[in-house]
Design brief:
single chain, BH3618-like, 7-stranded mixed beta barrel, two-stranded antiparallel sheet, 3 helices
Length: about 150
């Protein structure tokens, strides 16, 4: 299995033609715990650039929060396999947007760096990928990462 480095791409570095055409994202398989949903609406949280609500298109009450890694995690450079890249039809790292799932908690807010959501910025096709053989935590405290 070969791998390709896939750096996070912030909205500042994506060319206008690579920006998502629609806020509708289509997962190649349902995200873990959200089966059978594959179509989601990505909505930016007002006043919090790079923070989004990801809601199931067929059931808006089913949602999670995600961050644009390029905005909040400048040192996060996940590497995905060629197979993962091919499934999303990614031709170059600039074609991708990397989102991480946010887990708000009473003590601290954490993000899942082990399983980012990789989005083809051109087509809206995406997948939550497992970064095997990499040392990214499942629950990284956001405050420590953004400092």
């Amino acid at each position: 299995m070969s791998t390709s480095p896939l750096p996070p791409v912030s909205s500042n570095t994506v060319s206008p033609s690579a920006a998502p055409v629609s806020p509708l994202l289509s997962f190649v398989t349902p995200p873990p715990g959200l089966d059978p949903h594959t179509d989601f609406r990505l909505s930016e949280i007002e006043g919090a650039a790079g923070l989004y609500s990801l809601q199931a298109a067929a059931e808006p009450a089913t949602r999670m929060f995600v961050l644009d890694a390029g905005v909040y995690l400048p040192d996060y450079f996940p590497v995905i396999s060629s197979e993962q890249s091919d499934a999303l039809a990614l031709l170059a790292p600039v074609d991708a947007i990397v989102l991480v799932v946010v887990n708000p908690g009473k003590e601290a807010t954490t993000v899942n760096l082990m399983a980012p959501i990789v989005v083809n910025a051109i087509t809206g096709i995406c997948a939550q990928v497992i970064l095997e053989g990499q040392d990214w935590p499942l629950r990284a405290e956001l405050g420590a990462l953004a400092a």
